[in-house]
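Example 3.2
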Amino acid sequence: MIIRGRAWKFGDDVDTDAIIPARYLNTSDPAELAGHCLEDADPDFPKEVKPGEIIVAGKNFGCGSSREHAPLAIKAAGLGAVVAASFARIFYRNAFNIGLPIFESPEAAERIRKDDQIKIDPDHGRIYNLTLNEEYQATAIPSFMQELLAAGGLINYVRQKVKNGV
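Structure, written as tokens:
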């Protein structure tokens, strides 16, 4: 499945409090979380983001606490993927657990600008900047993690396995 969308650009060290402010952690309702996604980093983001758009950020995206609320808010906001120079370890795992596609590519994170049109080929780890006519390679996603994404996250993956008697 190809992912296409407009880029939203953020810098280094976007922490989980910036992704979903702590004042909203009293809910786990995805729609409520989506309505506040990245509002402290960019107050216009929750109002202007469109389904399928892509977050592009610098180093250490998702640092901070281990809360799953952060990738859940991004996914619930309808974003197609996150591309970053690097991800915090716990955010990386939580993203796959909930089925949020993320791609690590320092070159893409550096070159892509806000509003650039992006296309991602997850199967080959290729990121295309259609605006600049450039192509970047993302770090390969392990096959098991690809299976989690294809299933829509860990819970759906396990449900499928149980249903199939595996």
